[in-house]
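Pipeline run #58 for the internal structure catalog. This entry was flagged by the ingest filter as a single-chain record with no existing model, so it goes straight to prediction. Upstream metadata was stripped on purpose; only the residue string is passed forward. Reviewer on rotation: M.T. Logging verbosity set to normal.
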Amino acid sequence: MQLPTQFPTFQQTATALETLPSPVLSEFTASGISPGLTKANIRWISGPEAVEEFLELTIAQRQKNDSYLTTGNTRLLNRYEFIELGGWVAYGVGIDGSPAEIPYLKPAAPRWDEERKRGVKYETPPGLEARPLLPAMEPCWAKIAARWGIKRNPGESCWQAILRHSEIPLIITEGFKKALALVELGFPAIALRGVTQWHPKGQRCLWPEIAALVKERKVAVAFDEDEKPSTRQAVGQQAQQLGTAIAVAEGQPCHLNWEGQLGKGIDDALVALPREDRGQWLTEKLDAALTPKEQRRQRAVANSKAILGQAEPDCQFYGAGPGYMGPLPQLILGVIHWIAANMGSGKTVRMGIDWAIPFAAKGGITVVLAPLNSLGQQVAQSWGFPHIHDYGPDADSQQALMMDIRASGGVVACPNSAPRLEQLIPKSCPLLVVIDEAGQTLADAANGNTLKDRYSNCWESVIRLLRRAISDGGSIALAEDGIQQDVIDLVKVISGCERTYGIRYQRSAPPWPVTLYRATPVSDFRCGILAAAALRPQVVVTTSQAEARRIERAARKQGIERIERIDSTTNEASRYREFFENPDKWLAAHAPQLLIISPSGKTGLSIEGGVDAADAYFEQVWGYFPSLDLDTHKQLLGRYRPAVPRQIWAPAYIQPEPGEKAYRWQITGELDQQQARYAAAAGFTPAPPDRDDAALREFLAARRQRAWASKIRAADALADALIASGHNVKVVTTGVVKNPEITALWDEVKGELAHDDAHYHAALTIDPSLHTPAWASQICRSSDTSYEQRCLAAKVRMLTLFPGIDWDSLEVWYGAVFQPRKQDSKPAAAGARLWAEADFTAQLWERDRIEAAAILEKRLKAVHLLPQGGLQAVAAAAFKPLVAKLLALGKVEPGCPIAEEIKGLALKYAAELKRLWRMVIHADQSAVAVACKIARKFGLVLSRDSRVGGRGQQQWRYRIACDPLWAALVAARQQALSGSTEPFNPPINGYGLPQVSSQAHLTQNDALPDAGPPPNP
């Protein structure tokens, strides 16, 4: 082994090594650390004595015989023989100034880590605690004392003096050199041996020496600014957890951030600056340090930009121009083709002309999969193919459909109809599978919210169709505006085809003048819609079907006529089929003053394509986007083609769904965790791992990751996307005030619509022989049902869940289901159900176990569709006894021990509550706020009572109660679960409250499972 010539060799004695080698001094000087501070904190060791010194404590712990060295310890010495080549070692000091015992070594010749494929830069002896390193600060004490204006008492160590002065901030960083670089400037700092080593193994509390120093002190976490996204995620997560632990230890955590170009580590950033500027720069960074909440937000924004900015797939054919796409390249058999073309470029028309119709002429069959029936109907009409939903389920209709498929050479359907398609398509014909709006089509199928145990069967059929297309003389074609790589990757795996041919076309068009209102008072935006619609025709696109109804009702109350609202409810019996097939013809015939479109019109529509803004029918497009994600927002805005002004309202933040997270490994890890939990608790073995199932899970994770990225900065992400598309965007954040009249109008409209819904449901007549629970379940899972059927199913469901309640009563429906949510209360049924089911966890869990087995024992496991009712009841059982005590007390106020206990439990199970109850709990929320949030989840009524606390620290006291309808619903649900046949039919008013149990029947098996640490990426 050749030894590095610049270091002393192992033959030199420890006495000769009191002077540090010049390369070591240079290493520390390069980090801005003076020789005096360096020599006070590190030594150079080498030779056999170095190995013995490094392993001394480990060997002492392991050695069981005083007369000779055990075989295990001999092997240990041999394993660390590389230390003989030398290295610098640091121990740090205790708070009292005495030397610490556990070495921290940087070897001259690092050992190789085979798993990570890199050298181990720093070493801590095996088996010893990776305790933090407190630098010896004596050489820099004058700087520290001068900077902070303090003095040491006689006999007092530097760290004891710091301990007395909690006004002095403390910095915690990873790596000893970084801590010394900070001390050199007069800033006390602690070094961690690694970002995960801020706590003892198996615990989540701080090391005692850190806990002692952080109390009542500002503590800045200064971990590296890494470039690699996965490393940034892991480091950022540890920084966040460290901040939480500091807060628990009564410290004031914050996070230091700096410009990445200055350097990865804090020492790199400091030495990139002139020496005379370093102290001032660090002071400014400390003053500007982010709170944990601000740090979380900053990390999320950075992740969002990285996710949404991912590179587009490489293509083989590219075109651009002001007109529609020209002829497509010839279809290649046995290949996956994909077309990425912006809205209005004519990609669907070209696929029909150049691929589908010629393929049919040669005896092939084209299967078109589309996400929505409305889009599918357009494709069917354009290409001359039958649509599967135009034919009934009876044998004669299916026979007619088979004949029409043969005659036309194609069929249009949604992925859920794939099992029917397999029976209808001739087995002898080659197959071209076209997936229009591919990302949305496959994402909707992957989510499969209504499929449950049919999920696997539907996807098995889709997979067989795709594989048949590749293997039997056909092809696959995907089309979408801005197609993502995850779509292509999924189809490659499940079709078994690796060959792809990409086509990209960008149609240039006049930019839109866009005004984007970022989280401004929405009442002003609503006022703008009504005022504009009173003068000129307007079109409104919104992600909220409920808001679409409100706009329609409010506009009518304002005297606006000729209003058309198009959504899944109003399009009963294909009432708006003409609109979807030929929107311009429909527009000329109906001439609406106000057209309102919800997400049912987000794909396939081209309204007034090729019309200039000056000749457009509608004056403006109004986009109201309180929900869903960026892709939906962009699609809705582009349905109206002319470049008229776009007025858009979007929140700064949309709460992601529980399964939507920043990193794909988090999403797949949680799914794996849920699968393992159900399998272990329910006693069955899931189907073995499968490539297709893994591909579906990865695709689902990619879509959910993108949804998360677009929601956590909703308005800003939309602005970025519109600017990237060439539009002129003005973002408005200030200068807009709340409109009290419109606010009152909307409250009035919400109440009216709630009463309308309550009246409609109450008036429905149930036929027990026809409208059974099984029928209702089938209706809820079907994608092709009428509004009346869905409402009847809802009524059957409520009769089943809450027997004996008068569901023919308007007042019951209003109070239990449709009452608009207010600050103090929400509709009673969901909360009452949760309260009652908390006492029946075993029964509900057994029901879920059976359903979970049906899902997980199949090859394609829809883990994301596992039932949640049993686990929700288990969560309710954990909190119900505490909430019952609050209910008996009648109030929630600051300092309440019960509220503090609820907060502690909620923090422990924060991940579970987010997933099961869509509830976000943070440590910085007050105990009162958390307790009120949990109590409202149970359907209890909370109202502000009075302010309590001293001046500047006042908080609210809340009254807590339950109303009679809630209590009746609880009793009814308990009766349904218990199987009691005793009559229960209380009148709506005039009865006493049932006895509310303050004890939940909890067993060890019912306890809410611990979420545990997140899985490793």
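catalog note: The first strand starts at residue 42 and ends at 45.
catalog note: Residues 1-17, 983-1017 have pLDDT under 50 and may be disordered.
status: ready for reviewer M.T.
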